[in-house]
Protein backbone atom coordinates (compact mmCIF):
# COMPACT_ATOMS: atom_id res chain seq x y z
CA UNK A 1 0.00 0.00 0.00
CA UNK A 2 1.24 3.48 -0.91
CA UNK A 3 1.91 5.02 2.52
CA UNK A 4 0.71 8.40 1.25
CA UNK A 5 -2.80 7.04 0.68
CA UNK A 6 -5.52 8.22 3.04
CA UNK A 7 -6.97 4.77 3.66
CA UNK A 8 -10.11 6.11 5.35
CA UNK A 9 -10.91 8.30 2.33
CA UNK A 10 -10.03 5.51 -0.13
CA UNK A 11 -12.28 3.02 1.64
CA UNK A 12 -15.15 5.55 1.62
CA UNK A 13 -14.59 6.11 -2.12
CA UNK A 14 -14.58 2.36 -2.85
CA UNK A 15 -17.77 1.85 -0.80
CA UNK A 16 -19.62 4.36 -3.02
CA UNK A 17 -18.06 3.30 -6.34
CA UNK A 18 -18.75 -0.39 -5.77
CA UNK A 19 -21.95 -0.19 -3.71
CA UNK A 20 -20.15 -2.06 -0.94
CA UNK A 21 -21.02 -2.27 2.75
CA UNK A 22 -18.40 -2.85 5.46
CA UNK A 23 -19.65 -4.99 8.36
CA UNK A 24 -17.33 -5.21 11.37
CA UNK A 25 -17.33 -7.24 14.54
CA UNK A 26 -16.56 -5.49 17.85
CA UNK A 27 -13.27 -7.41 18.12
CA UNK A 28 -11.82 -5.65 15.07
CA UNK A 29 -9.10 -3.04 15.56
CA UNK A 30 -10.42 0.50 16.28
CA UNK A 31 -9.55 1.89 12.80
CA UNK A 32 -11.67 -0.79 11.14
CA UNK A 33 -14.57 -0.15 13.52
CA UNK A 34 -14.34 3.57 12.70
CA UNK A 35 -14.62 2.98 8.97
CA UNK A 36 -17.39 0.33 9.16
CA UNK A 37 -21.01 0.95 8.12
CA UNK A 38 -22.23 -1.40 10.81
CA UNK A 39 -20.52 -2.77 13.93
CA UNK A 40 -22.17 -5.55 15.87
CA UNK A 41 -22.26 -8.93 17.49
CA UNK A 42 -22.73 -12.16 15.55
CA UNK A 43 -26.54 -11.91 15.53
CA UNK A 44 -26.61 -8.28 14.42
CA UNK A 45 -24.03 -8.96 11.73
CA UNK A 46 -25.95 -11.91 10.27
CA UNK A 47 -29.19 -9.88 10.30
CA UNK A 48 -27.42 -7.07 8.41
CA UNK A 49 -25.91 -9.53 5.93
CA UNK A 50 -29.38 -10.98 5.24
CA UNK A 51 -31.05 -7.64 4.59
CA UNK A 52 -28.47 -5.42 2.90
CA UNK A 53 -29.02 -4.29 -0.70
CA UNK A 54 -25.31 -3.65 -1.30
CA UNK A 55 -23.62 -5.56 -4.15
CA UNK A 56 -20.53 -6.34 -2.09
CA UNK A 57 -20.34 -7.30 1.59
CA UNK A 58 -16.90 -6.64 3.03
CA UNK A 59 -16.74 -8.67 6.22
CA UNK A 60 -14.29 -7.37 8.79
CA UNK A 61 -14.47 -10.37 11.09
CA UNK A 62 -13.50 -14.02 10.89
CA UNK A 63 -14.16 -16.72 8.29
CA UNK A 64 -17.32 -18.28 9.79
CA UNK A 65 -18.93 -14.80 9.89
CA UNK A 66 -18.19 -14.05 6.23
CA UNK A 67 -19.31 -17.59 5.36
CA UNK A 68 -22.63 -16.95 7.16
CA UNK A 69 -23.07 -13.77 5.10
CA UNK A 70 -22.46 -15.76 1.89
CA UNK A 71 -24.91 -18.46 2.98
CA UNK A 72 -27.59 -15.81 3.49
CA UNK A 73 -26.77 -13.64 0.45
CA UNK A 74 -25.36 -15.94 -2.27
CA UNK A 75 -25.93 -13.45 -5.08
CA UNK A 76 -23.61 -10.97 -3.38
CA UNK A 77 -19.85 -10.88 -3.48
CA UNK A 78 -18.56 -11.46 0.08
CA UNK A 79 -14.99 -10.39 0.80
CA UNK A 80 -12.85 -11.14 3.85
CA UNK A 81 -9.68 -9.00 4.22
CA UNK A 82 -7.61 -12.04 5.29
CA UNK A 83 -8.80 -15.56 4.43
CA UNK A 84 -6.61 -16.94 7.21
CA UNK A 85 -8.77 -15.19 9.83
CA UNK A 86 -10.21 -18.40 11.26
CA UNK A 87 -11.54 -19.20 14.73
CA UNK A 88 -10.16 -21.65 17.31
CA UNK A 89 -13.69 -22.47 18.44
CA UNK A 90 -14.92 -23.22 14.92
CA UNK A 91 -11.78 -25.34 14.36
CA UNK A 92 -12.52 -27.37 17.49
CA UNK A 93 -15.41 -29.06 15.69
CA UNK A 94 -14.33 -30.86 12.50
CA UNK A 95 -17.53 -31.81 10.58
CA UNK A 96 -16.57 -35.49 10.03
CA UNK A 97 -15.96 -36.10 13.75
CA UNK A 98 -19.11 -34.22 14.63
CA UNK A 99 -21.16 -36.28 12.17
CA UNK A 100 -20.03 -39.47 13.96
CA UNK A 101 -20.86 -37.97 17.37
CA UNK A 102 -24.31 -36.97 16.10
CA UNK A 103 -24.94 -40.45 14.69
CA UNK A 104 -24.45 -41.90 18.18
CA UNK A 105 -27.32 -39.75 19.46
CA UNK A 106 -29.96 -39.92 16.73
CA UNK A 107 -32.80 -38.76 19.01
CA UNK A 108 -31.03 -35.46 19.82
CA UNK A 109 -31.75 -32.10 18.24
CA UNK A 110 -28.57 -30.19 17.34
CA UNK A 111 -28.26 -26.55 18.39
CA UNK A 112 -24.98 -25.03 17.21
CA UNK A 113 -23.39 -21.76 18.17
CA UNK A 114 -22.83 -19.65 15.05
CA UNK A 115 -19.04 -19.86 15.69
CA UNK A 116 -18.71 -23.00 13.55
CA UNK A 117 -18.00 -23.96 9.95
CA UNK A 118 -20.66 -24.28 7.23
CA UNK A 119 -20.07 -28.05 7.49
CA UNK A 120 -21.22 -28.04 11.14
CA UNK A 121 -24.12 -25.72 10.35
CA UNK A 122 -25.27 -28.19 7.70
CA UNK A 123 -25.38 -30.90 10.40
CA UNK A 124 -27.37 -28.69 12.80
CA UNK A 125 -31.10 -28.12 13.35
CA UNK A 126 -30.90 -24.58 14.72
CA UNK A 127 -28.09 -22.04 14.99
CA UNK A 128 -27.82 -19.61 17.89
CA UNK A 129 -25.57 -16.78 18.98
CA UNK A 130 -24.67 -15.69 22.49
CA UNK A 131 -27.46 -13.10 22.41
CA UNK A 132 -30.34 -15.40 21.45
CA UNK A 133 -29.20 -18.83 22.73
CA UNK A 134 -31.56 -18.92 25.71
CA UNK A 135 -34.55 -18.04 23.53
CA UNK A 136 -33.57 -20.67 20.96
CA UNK A 137 -33.18 -23.39 23.62
CA UNK A 138 -36.48 -22.42 25.20
CA UNK A 139 -38.23 -22.67 21.82
CA UNK A 140 -37.52 -26.43 21.87
CA UNK A 141 -39.96 -28.72 23.78
CA UNK A 142 -38.66 -29.57 27.28
CA UNK A 143 -38.55 -33.34 26.70
CA UNK A 144 -36.47 -32.98 23.49
CA UNK A 145 -32.84 -34.03 24.10
CA UNK A 146 -30.31 -31.50 22.78
CA UNK A 147 -26.73 -31.63 21.55
CA UNK A 148 -25.04 -28.24 21.94
CA UNK A 149 -21.91 -27.51 19.86
CA UNK A 150 -19.14 -26.46 19.64
CA UNK A 151 -18.53 -24.35 22.80
CA UNK A 152 -18.58 -26.32 26.06
CA UNK A 153 -18.33 -23.15 28.18
CA UNK A 154 -21.31 -21.43 26.58
CA UNK A 155 -23.13 -24.79 26.59
CA UNK A 156 -22.54 -25.33 30.33
CA UNK A 157 -23.62 -21.75 31.09
CA UNK A 158 -26.82 -22.23 29.07
CA UNK A 159 -27.55 -25.63 30.62
CA UNK A 160 -27.37 -23.99 34.05
CA UNK A 161 -29.50 -21.00 33.00
CA UNK A 162 -32.23 -22.95 31.23
CA UNK A 163 -32.16 -26.05 33.44
CA UNK A 164 -31.78 -28.20 30.31
CA UNK A 165 -29.48 -31.18 30.39
CA UNK A 166 -27.60 -30.78 27.11
CA UNK A 167 -24.97 -33.01 25.59
CA UNK A 168 -21.96 -30.74 24.99
CA UNK A 169 -19.31 -30.88 22.28
CA UNK A 170 -15.89 -30.33 23.84
CA UNK A 171 -14.80 -27.13 22.06
CA UNK A 172 -13.65 -23.75 23.40
CA UNK A 173 -12.40 -20.34 22.36
CA UNK A 174 -8.66 -19.79 22.94
CA UNK A 175 -9.23 -16.13 23.84
CA UNK A 176 -11.91 -16.64 26.48
CA UNK A 177 -10.18 -19.63 28.05
CA UNK A 178 -7.04 -17.76 29.08
CA UNK A 179 -8.60 -15.41 31.63
CA UNK A 180 -7.25 -15.88 35.10
CA UNK A 181 -9.73 -16.08 37.98
CA UNK A 182 -6.92 -15.32 40.41
CA UNK A 183 -5.78 -12.20 38.56
CA UNK A 184 -9.35 -10.94 38.07
CA UNK A 185 -9.96 -11.44 41.81
CA UNK A 186 -6.79 -9.49 42.68
CA UNK A 187 -7.83 -6.72 40.27
CA UNK A 188 -11.23 -6.61 41.92
CA UNK A 189 -9.60 -6.13 45.33
CA UNK A 190 -7.72 -3.11 43.93
CA UNK A 191 -10.91 -1.79 42.27
CA UNK A 192 -13.65 -2.75 44.73
CA UNK A 193 -16.34 -0.72 42.97
CA UNK A 194 -15.62 -2.13 39.51
CA UNK A 195 -18.20 -4.49 38.02
CA UNK A 196 -17.00 -7.64 36.28
CA UNK A 197 -18.69 -8.04 32.90
CA UNK A 198 -17.98 -11.23 30.96
CA UNK A 199 -18.72 -13.04 27.72
CA UNK A 200 -20.36 -16.49 28.17
CA UNK A 201 -17.50 -18.16 26.24
CA UNK A 202 -15.47 -17.80 29.49
CA UNK A 203 -15.00 -20.73 31.84
CA UNK A 204 -17.56 -21.34 34.62
CA UNK A 205 -15.20 -20.21 37.43
CA UNK A 206 -14.88 -16.78 35.79
CA UNK A 207 -18.59 -16.54 34.98
CA UNK A 208 -19.40 -17.35 38.61
CA UNK A 209 -17.81 -14.07 39.80
CA UNK A 210 -19.24 -11.92 36.99
CA UNK A 211 -21.80 -9.20 37.76
CA UNK A 212 -23.15 -9.38 34.24
CA UNK A 213 -22.80 -11.94 31.41
CA UNK A 214 -23.70 -11.31 27.78
CA UNK A 215 -22.79 -11.11 24.10
CA UNK A 216 -20.58 -8.24 22.95
CA UNK A 217 -23.64 -6.08 22.15
CA UNK A 218 -25.22 -6.97 25.50
CA UNK A 219 -22.00 -6.04 27.37
CA UNK A 220 -21.83 -2.72 25.52
CA UNK A 221 -25.49 -1.93 26.24
CA UNK A 222 -25.04 -2.86 29.89
CA UNK A 223 -22.03 -0.53 30.19
CA UNK A 224 -24.21 2.32 28.87
CA UNK A 225 -27.20 1.90 31.14
CA UNK A 226 -25.47 0.71 34.31
CA UNK A 227 -24.52 3.28 36.94
CA UNK A 228 -21.03 1.96 37.90
CA UNK A 229 -17.99 4.03 36.97
CA UNK A 230 -15.49 1.18 36.51
CA UNK A 231 -15.69 -2.19 34.75
CA UNK A 232 -13.38 -5.18 34.44
CA UNK A 233 -14.10 -6.43 30.93
CA UNK A 234 -13.66 -10.18 30.46
CA UNK A 235 -13.69 -10.63 26.71
CA UNK A 236 -11.58 -9.73 23.68
CA UNK A 237 -10.11 -6.22 23.98
CA UNK A 238 -11.65 -4.87 20.74
CA UNK A 239 -14.94 -4.21 22.53
CA UNK A 240 -13.25 -1.56 24.71
CA UNK A 241 -13.12 0.87 21.78
CA UNK A 242 -16.91 1.31 21.60
CA UNK A 243 -17.28 1.11 25.39
CA UNK A 244 -14.85 3.99 25.84
CA UNK A 245 -16.37 6.05 23.02
CA UNK A 246 -19.92 5.60 24.34
CA UNK A 247 -18.95 6.20 28.00
CA UNK A 248 -16.12 8.76 28.08
CA UNK A 249 -16.41 9.28 31.84
CA UNK A 250 -16.19 5.57 32.74
CA UNK A 251 -13.10 3.38 33.09
CA UNK A 252 -12.82 0.01 31.36
CA UNK A 253 -10.08 -2.36 32.48
CA UNK A 254 -9.27 -5.37 30.27
CA UNK A 255 -9.23 -8.56 32.39
CA UNK A 256 -5.74 -10.07 32.65
CA UNK A 257 -4.83 -13.38 31.00
CA UNK A 258 -3.31 -16.24 33.01
CA UNK A 259 0.32 -15.55 32.11
CA UNK A 260 2.34 -12.57 31.00
CA UNK A 261 3.03 -14.07 27.55
CA UNK A 262 -0.63 -14.62 26.79
CA UNK A 263 -2.85 -11.89 25.44
CA UNK A 264 -6.58 -11.39 25.20
CA UNK A 265 -6.57 -10.15 21.61
CA UNK A 266 -8.04 -12.70 19.22
CA UNK A 267 -5.16 -13.55 16.86
CA UNK A 268 -7.66 -14.40 14.12
CA UNK A 269 -9.76 -11.25 14.38
CA UNK A 270 -6.61 -9.15 14.54
CA UNK A 271 -5.27 -10.55 11.24
CA UNK A 272 -7.50 -7.99 9.52
CA UNK A 273 -5.94 -4.55 9.18
CA UNK A 274 -7.06 -1.30 7.57
CA UNK A 275 -4.52 -1.88 4.77
CA UNK A 276 -5.90 -5.36 4.03
CA UNK A 277 -9.44 -3.98 4.14
CA UNK A 278 -8.55 -1.37 1.53
CA UNK A 279 -6.73 -3.90 -0.69
CA UNK A 280 -9.58 -6.41 -0.60
CA UNK A 281 -12.03 -3.69 -1.61
CA UNK A 282 -9.80 -2.44 -4.40
CA UNK A 283 -9.06 -5.89 -5.89
CA UNK A 284 -12.29 -7.64 -4.75
CA UNK A 285 -10.45 -10.56 -3.20
CA UNK A 286 -10.12 -12.76 -1.19
CA UNK A 287 -13.68 -13.76 -1.92
CA UNK A 288 -15.80 -16.33 -0.04
CA UNK A 289 -17.08 -19.07 -2.34
CA UNK A 290 -19.10 -22.10 -1.36
CA UNK A 291 -20.49 -25.32 -2.74
CA UNK A 292 -24.21 -24.72 -3.42
CA UNK A 293 -25.38 -27.97 -1.81
CA UNK A 294 -23.48 -27.15 1.38
CA UNK A 295 -24.81 -23.59 1.34
CA UNK A 296 -28.44 -24.73 1.12
CA UNK A 297 -27.97 -27.27 3.93
CA UNK A 298 -26.24 -24.68 6.13
CA UNK A 299 -28.88 -22.03 5.42
CA UNK A 300 -31.83 -23.92 6.94
CA UNK A 301 -30.69 -23.79 10.61
CA UNK A 302 -29.60 -20.15 10.25
CA UNK A 303 -33.03 -19.23 8.89
CA UNK A 304 -34.67 -21.01 11.82
CA UNK A 305 -32.54 -18.90 14.15
CA UNK A 306 -33.45 -15.65 12.35
CA UNK A 307 -37.16 -16.57 12.49
CA UNK A 308 -37.06 -17.35 16.22
CA UNK A 309 -35.07 -14.22 17.07
CA UNK A 310 -37.03 -11.80 14.81
P1 LIG B 1 -20.68 -12.12 19.95
O1 LIG B 1 -20.18 -10.81 19.40
O2 LIG B 1 -21.86 -12.60 19.18
O3 LIG B 1 -20.93 -12.01 21.41
O4 LIG B 1 -19.53 -13.22 19.70
C1 LIG B 1 -18.29 -13.17 20.30
C2 LIG B 1 -17.25 -13.91 19.55
O5 LIG B 1 -16.43 -14.60 20.08
C3 LIG B 1 -17.20 -13.79 18.12
O6 LIG B 1 -16.17 -14.49 17.64
FE1 LIG C 1 -13.12 -17.50 17.58
FE2 LIG C 1 -12.64 -16.83 20.08
FE3 LIG C 1 -11.57 -15.39 18.12
FE4 LIG C 1 -14.23 -15.28 18.58
S1 LIG C 1 -12.60 -14.58 19.93
S2 LIG C 1 -13.20 -15.48 16.60
S3 LIG C 1 -14.62 -17.38 19.25
S4 LIG C 1 -11.13 -17.55 18.57
Automatic annotation (TrEMBL):
Gene3D superfamilies: NadA-like (3.40.50.10800). Pathway: Cofactor biosynthesis; NAD(+) biosynthesis; quinolinate from iminoaspartate: step 1/1. Binds 1 [4Fe-4S] cluster per subunit. [4Fe-4S] cluster binds at residues 87, 173, 266. One of its GO terms (molecular function) is transferase activity. SUPFAM superfamilies: NadA-like. It comes from the Bacteria. Its cofactor is [4Fe-4S] cluster. Its main location: cytoplasm. It is an enzyme of class 2 (transferase). Coiled coil: none annotated. Its EC number is 2.5.1.72. Keywords: 4Fe-4S, Cytoplasm, Iron, Iron-sulfur, Metal-binding, Pyridine nucleotide biosynthesis, Transferase. Iminosuccinate binds at residues 25, 42, 113-115, 130, 199-201, 216. It is found in: Cytoplasm. It catalyses: iminosuccinate + dihydroxyacetone phosphate = quinolinate + phosphate + 2 H2O + H(+). Pfam families: NadA. Catalyzes the condensation of iminoaspartate with dihydroxyacetone phosphate to form quinolinate. Belongs to the quinolinate synthase family. Type 2 subfamily. This is Quinolinate synthase. It comes from Chitinophaga rhizophila. The lineage of its organism: Bacteria, Pseudomonadati, Bacteroidota, Chitinophagia, Chitinophagales.
Amino acid sequence: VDVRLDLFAEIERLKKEKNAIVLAHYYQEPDIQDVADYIGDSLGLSQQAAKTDADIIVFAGVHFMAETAKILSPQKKVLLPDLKAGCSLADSAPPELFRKFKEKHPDHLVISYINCSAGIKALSDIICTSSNAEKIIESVPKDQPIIFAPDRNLGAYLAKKTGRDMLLWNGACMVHEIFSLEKITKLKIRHPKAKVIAHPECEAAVLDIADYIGSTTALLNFSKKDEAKEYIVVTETGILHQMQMENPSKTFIPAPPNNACACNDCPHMKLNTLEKLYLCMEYEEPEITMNEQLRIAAKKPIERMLEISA
